[in-house]
Task: inverse folding
């Protein structure tokens, strides 16, 4: 008997959930490559258990960083993340720091500590951010300024002070080099993926990546932005919970050609590539990791190819 459309959709969603579960747990079976061996990294916005910062910190450790600093303004989950990294990867030194990624003194302090501890800084992943969902009519100047401060100032400080540290040489690092990666969003590429204040802030992050890359020319320090699409994280949890309550979870993410939403580990893959020497000629880019959402103008799914 032929399956009904609803049965086909349910089966497809079950397959998607199985695929996403494998992606989330890929580090359990993936060999360590040593792509980041010997490097010192700072990651901000590591507090969410389902977040991009945490997933990236774990992948950095899996790929062999020498020392990783995991940071967040909230201390609730940092000790557990440090313990997880230390247990899984005893060769990786992990330091957890409670800090405000948009505070100049806090950012400088972490970077100074990395230099004092290791004599070098190689990777800075500026991931801390907030998201809002209010329409412009319900957004005031204070909302705009707060979003800009957290999302843009944090990235500016990373570019300014991490690049200075990456230029410092030592016996273990004979030449200037490094990789700065910032979390932007497809909302910063074009409208339709976020509120006005959030989208504007992420467009600014993309501009920071492009401008900083040129400001740092001839230093061998690269600056790039990663632009996630709809990713299941603590930040987007209300969207997913609402869909599940309505029984429409299978439709989440259907507006991209991959026909699903993403998970934090998939952004971590892209960030790890940008952080590694494999991306040595990738500079000043805004890399969409969105299932193909940004590849097209709006279309009716399944009606126009």
Result:
């Amino acid at each position: 008997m032929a399956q009904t459309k609803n049965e086909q959709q349910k089966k497809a969603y079950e397959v998607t959930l199985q695929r996403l579960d494998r992606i989330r747990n890929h580090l359990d079976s993936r060999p360590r490559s040593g792509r980041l061996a010997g490097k010192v990294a700072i990651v901000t916005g590591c507090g969410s258990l389902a977040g991009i910062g945490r997933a990236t910190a774990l992948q950095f450790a899996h790929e062999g960083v020498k020392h990783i600093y995991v940071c967040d303004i909230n201390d609730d989950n940092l000790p557990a993340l440090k313990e997880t990294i230390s247990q899984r990867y005893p060769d990786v030194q992990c330091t957890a720091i409670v800090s405000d990624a948009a505070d100049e003194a806090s950012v400088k302090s972490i970077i100074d500590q990395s230099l004092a501890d290791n004599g070098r800084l190689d990777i800075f992943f500026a991931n801390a951010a907030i998201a809002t969902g209010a329409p412009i009519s319900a957004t005031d100047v204070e909302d705009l300024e707060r979003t800009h401060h957290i999302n843009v100032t944090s990235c500016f400080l990373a570019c300014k002070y991490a690049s200075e540290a990456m230029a410092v040489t030592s016996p273990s690092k004979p030449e200037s080099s490094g990789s700065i990666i910032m979390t932007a969003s497809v909302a910063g590429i074009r409208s339709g993926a976020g509120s006005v204040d959030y989208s504007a802030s992420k467009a600014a992050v993309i501009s920071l990546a492009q401008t900083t890359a040129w400001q740092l020319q001839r230093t061998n320090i690269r600056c790039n932005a990663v632009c996630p699409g709809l990713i299941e994280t603590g930040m987007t949890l209300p969207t997913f919970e609402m869909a599940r309550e309505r029984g429409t979870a299978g439709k989440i993410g259907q507006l991209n050609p991959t026909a699903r939403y993403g998970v934090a580990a998939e952004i971590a893959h892209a960030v790890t590539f940008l952080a590694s020497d494999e991306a040595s000629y990738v500079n000043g880019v805004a890399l969409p990791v969105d299932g193909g959402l940004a590849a097209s103008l709006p279309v009716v799914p399944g009606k126009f190819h």
In short: Strands lie at 40-43, 67-72, 93-98, 123-126, 178-183, 221-228, 231-232, 262-263, 286-289.
